[in-house]
Specification:
With 350 residues, the chain is of the alpha/beta class. It is built from 10 helices and 14 strands. α3 packs parallel to α4.
Length: 350
């Protein structure tokens, strides 16, 4: 099959600026009448058509070229690859099949990589039961959460094309029954309006993140984490101010190739009645990633805040595992466990 035709035209504007226009039809379209119409159109716009030409281009396999340009990539434990790749997924990796399509999210953008790294680190430290992916795009984060957390994930996007692509990718990854993709404008869909999500992934843009901070607070449960991405370092203040006004605290900041990923946390109402208690999550170690091009900024924390916040943290983690019981009894049991099993509370030694 012959390749497409390149039509190039040089047009001089009214102020002498030279512009080049290109088009790629399959069949020749230029004739004398077409050239006259183009010349008149340029003149009517205050310019002049200098040259126009057609050239047949060689046929190219754009699909193969696109596949070659999208090799498998490792982001933390996640191995992201296209459907064309038939290699084995290492036992230590979590394979995610994503094809470059009409929705954002192939794992190549720094904001997507930042979200995947944040998800992996959070999953190492606690168990999540109700994850939500807002602005899912290709569905890559929802799929990663479903595979890493072994939970059902709800994902939403305002773009119907993104919803279609995300559903397709969920099926391709064998998650049609565990990733539910819905068309939703932010959190205001009837399906997404339910509260009690303990993990929210929102890789959108800075301004929408700031505008939806109040809705996020309604959706996330106390003690829940929110991963916010799609912003530049200079936009962090805008996003953080909006979420701090809703009672969320910054837990971690990742910067990858000039793009920021923020991990925020909503304080536990049962434990966090003061500012000191909101710092406990920052006290736990966050292993720096070896991903190329990533720099990590750590937040300072005082020694006194560190010790008190660690105790609050241990209590919150331990309390979630215990049956309902009076607060005083729960506290006594925690202290008893800390004395009897110090190896389980190594963070106090740091």
């Amino acid at each position: 099959m012959p390749g497409p035709i390149l039509i190039s035209a040089d047009v001089e504007g009214a102020e002498g600026a030279l512009e080049v226009a290109e088009a790629y039809p399959r069949e020749p379209v230029l004739d004398a009448a077409a050239e006259i119409r183009l010349a008149l159109a340029a003149a009517g716009a205050g310019g002049r058509l200098i040259r126009i030409a057609e050239e047949r281009l060689p046929e190219r396999d754009w699909l193969s070229e696109n596949r070659r340009a999208f090799p498998p990539q490792r982001v933390g434990r996640f191995l992201i690859h296209g459907s064309h790749w038939q290699g084995p997924v290492p036992a230590s990796a979590i394979g995610i099949e994503i094809d470059a399509a009409t929705a954002f999210g192939t794992g190549e953008h720094p904001s997507t990589r930042g979200c995947l790294l944040a998800l992996e680190e959070l999953a190492r430290r606690r168990r999540f039961r109700r994850p939500l992916d807002i602005g899912t795009g290709s569905g890559i984060l929802a799929i990663a959460a479903a595979k890493r957390l072994h939970r059902r994930v709800v994902a939403g996007d305002i773009d119907p094309e993104a919803v279609r692509v995300a559903r397709h990718h969920a099926r391709r990854n064998g998650l049609a029954g565990r990733v539910r993709v819905v068309r939703a404008a932010g959190y205001r869909s009837r399906i997404l309006r339910r509260s009690g999500y303990d993990l929210i992934l929102a890789n959108i843009l800075a301004r929408p993140l700031a505008l939806m901070a109040r809705d996020l607070k309604r959706a996330i449960m106390p003690g829940g984490d929110a991963v916010l991405a799609g912003l530049l370092p200079r936009q962090e203040a805008l996003v953080l101010a909006a979420h701090r006004a809703q009672g969320l605290s910054l837990e971690r900041r990742l910067v990858i190739e000039g793009w920021s990923t923020l991990v925020a946390w909503r304080a536990l109402s049962a434990v966090a009645g003061s500012r000191a208690s909101t710092g406990w999550r920052r006290a736990f170690s966050w292993k720096p990633s070896t991903t190329a091009g990533m720099s990590e900024r750590r937040m300072p924390i005082s020694a006194s805040e560190r010790s008190s916040s660690i105790i609050s943290s241990l209590y919150a983690r331990w309390r979630r595992r215990q049956p309902a019981q009076p607060l005083r009894a729960a506290t006594k049991r925690l202290i008893s466990d800390m004395v009897r099993f110090p190896q389980n509370y190594g963070a106090l030694q740091k």
